[in-house]
Amino acid sequence: MQALLPTRSTLPLFDVAASRRIEARALAHSPDLMERAGLAVAKLALALRRGEGPIWIACGPGNNGGDGRVAARRLSEIGLPVHVGHTAPPQPSLVIDALLGLGLNRPPDAALQTTIAAMQTCGATILAVDLPSGLLADTGQAAGGAAVRADHTLALLTLKPGLFTGEGRGYGGQLWFDDLGITPDEVASADLLGPSPLPQRNPTSHKGSHGQVLIVGGAPGMQGAARLAARAALACGAGRVYVDLLGLPATEPADPGQPELMRGRLADLPQAVGVVGCGAGPTIADALPALLREAPKLVIDADALNAIAADDELQTLVRARTAGSTLLTPHPLEAARLLGCDTSAVQADRLAAASELARRLACTVVLKGSGSIIASPGERPAICASGGPALATAGSGDVLAGWLGGLWAQQPGASGHAIACAGVDAHGRAGEAGGVLRAGDLIERLAARR
Ligand SMILES: NC(=O)C1=CN([C@@H]2O[C@H](COP(=O)(O)OP(=O)(O)OC[C@H]3O[C@@H](n4cnc5c(N)ncnc54)[C@H](O)[C@@H]3O)[C@@H](O)[C@H]2O)[C@@H](O)CC1
Ligand SMILES: Nc1ncnc2c1ncn2[C@@H]1O[C@H](COP(=O)(O)OP(=O)(O)O)[C@@H](O)[C@H]1O
């Protein structure tokens, strides 16, 4: 058993169907899986229990409840007071939620909702078995809007995607994992991202060795967004960073507070990685055809995404680009515009939405938000579980776009998918902080990890 986040390496995630196949094959040679699961729950319960009161174990009708009953037996065998039932005992020392796991197939009914509410209000720490009851394992959504908000969740046998994206991080609490001694004999449904190595710098390298980035955006009144992206690309290690500030005379400095940055234009920088759209406003639509035809690598964000969503010809140009050379970074609303649906449809199944967008536009998609998804045609999707609400502030997405551009400039042979996985994970880890991180501070934290 191990505490999971932050992850030290990339881990496989298995959806419900794949978890069931793994379980079925494992049961053929290890029929004691539920004993192992219940023992793991009991061990963690021992560590989490606070006070002398009974451990309340709420068991459901299926195997999730079975795990709970095994845990109850194990705990009472060592003399601990245990209460199995759907109503709270007085002053429980811990609640074990074993109502529903992988088998959730409809919203919890009124009786279950009453039990969930009692768990939530009894004042004890809640340990969920496998999944918080009511949370859909594949999507990280609460079925019918009702699920247990656990303090801890012990995932069993497999890690399920829904613990890491959508609302999953909000319901799961601290995550633990026990593989029950089974090595999955199944292709993963998705990857949970671990850290990627940063680009190395050769002792004899010079600025020309580390590539160029061209930021296109920053319409009047929104230059800060482009400048944040440019500063992030520079902090990442790009050899030269240029800014094309839309509507601002070329004689104006790129960024008076960051003299390393230069003004530049696509026509003069044919090799530069383009980072397009940060604070760009609607006029970015005029610049996009040339960028989409000529820039060898593009990170497309913000207003550029909105312009593409509104224009079929721009979408055709996106699809026509070389495979692996285009990376879109929509937040859920931008993704919804690109897909022609609403935000709730995107959030209802973030993995599916990101994969569909990647398929339609033949490029890499980073669907931002809690549990960012990285999806590309022909690649297994990845989920980034690092980062948190400290990133929920203006400018953190601009920093991500710039950082991705900076990484790509230094690794021109890498695919958009590889750059997205590395950059999104680094951005998330730098964004693990209490309170709120100002975007400028986020750049410093990213730079400190270089
Ligand atoms: N597949 C695995 O990874 C393993 C499974 N184990 C445990 O088994 C669980 C899966 O067991 P099951 O497949 O029996 O599924 P569950 O125990 O999650 O639930 C299935 C039962 O709940 C009912 N149900 C579903 N939604 C409901 C709702 N909203 N309200 C009321 N009843 C509802 C179903 O009709 C069915 O009777 C896992 O979550 C885990 O706890 C472990 O014992 C071993 C490994
Ligand atoms: N609660 C959260 N958990 C994890 N990451 C978050 C959270 N809120 C925001 N982020 C991250 O912060 C960034 C915000 O990007 P975006 O919405 O484009 O902001 P902006 O346009 O203001 O720069 C994204 O990378 C997103 O994934």
TrEMBL record:
Residue sites binding K(+) per the record: N64, D97, S133
InterPro entries recorded: Carbohydrate_kinase_pred_CS, CARKD, Nnr, Ribokinase-like, YjeF_N_dom, YjeF_N_dom_sf
SUPFAM superfamilies hit by this protein: Ribokinase-like, YjeF N-terminal domain-like
Pfam families in UniProt: Carb_kinase, YjeF_N
Positions that bind (6S)-NADPHX: 63-67, 101-107, 130, 225, 277, 331, 398
Functional note: Bifunctional enzyme that catalyzes the epimerization of the S- and R-forms of NAD(P)HX and the dehydration of the S-form of NAD(P)HX at the expense of ADP, which is converted to AMP. This allows the repair of both epimers of NAD(P)HX, a damaged form of NAD(P)H that is a result of enzymatic or heat-dependent hydration. Catalyzes the dehydration of the S-form of NAD(P)HX at the expense of ADP, which is converted to AMP. Together with NAD(P)HX epimerase, which catalyzes the epimerization of the S- and R-forms, the enzyme allows the repair of both epimers of NAD(P)HX, a damaged form of NAD(P)H that is a result of enzymatic or heat-dependent hydration.
Similarity remark: In the N-terminal section; belongs to the NnrE/AIBP family.
Name of the protein: Bifunctional NAD(P)H-hydrate repair enzyme
The organism of origin for this protein: Pelomonas nitida
